[in-house]
Amino acid sequence: MIASPYLEVRDRYERQMTGRVDATPADALTHTVHLADEDGAVELVAVCTPSPGYEVLEARGTSRGGAANPAVAADLGGLAGARMVGGFTRR
Questions:
Q1: What is the pLDDT of residue 70?
Q2: pTM of the entire structure?
């Protein structure tokens, strides 16, 4: 059995995720994701070119409370210039 550190002090664990994609700016897609649990919350935003490029033009993260480490979210900016790759493809 694999023990979860999230269950050590509680009998259940729940994480909520919501996301949306906006077509702004006109030449890119803005992906926004909110992740939250009892311990903390973060918002992640990535502005990417559409298919077939999927290049990350801009990425940022924001701590939205709790134990979420703001330094980790701030490091998402380093993804700019990377390309998203889908699933189990051979690229």
A1: 74
A2: 0.76
